[in-house]
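Minutes, structural biology subgroup

Action item carried over from last meeting: produce the structure token record for YdcF family protein (Streptomyces ossamyceticus). EB confirmed the sequence was re-checked against the source entry. Recorded below for completeness.
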Amino acid sequence: MRRRTGLAVVGLAALAWGEWVNWRWSRVLVKNSGGGSMAVVVLGYRNPRPTVNLINRWRVRAGIRSVAADGAQETRLILSGGPTGAGTTEAQLMADYAKSVLGYDGTMLLEDRSTTTWENITNVVPLLEDVDHIKIASQPAHALKARAYLRRQRPDLAERLVRADDYRPGEWIVVKPLLALYGLWTLRVLRADERKTAP
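Output recorded by EB:
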């Protein structure tokens, strides 16, 4: 009985830690959003098959709900991801899913050359020049990494970053501790000032 209780406490602590870490990452390197025009960038994830994978489906849903979150005057959804093993691009697979499954009919732009997060940011920059606010939708650790990369490449555009709707309490709760551990490993490339929330 005591062992079960101990395991339950450890399990609950792991879930709470995963939730907290992902919540915190979703709020780093962003400002409060306001009116004006908006771009929501959805980053693709390793899609070697001819159908959109689970991670990319979730990222597209997070991107679309990020479009709806603020009621910006003018919003564009930018899907970023290069060639897959199936001969199409992640951007196209995500666009097909957004339109045919989720019924998205808003403005959509595709960036279809990127194979890394750094390239995602480099290649979407021309599509961000004329918007007032920028959201990057992905898992919180990955979105933070992308925001840090935008800050390195174009500090002026990074000033326009606002929070996407890619973190929700309880969503993916069982895997959030694993996502947090993986995030800690992937975010080791960031400097200390890129990991902190604004004061």
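Discussion: The longest helix spans residues 2-25.
Next step: EB to file the record with the rest of the batch.
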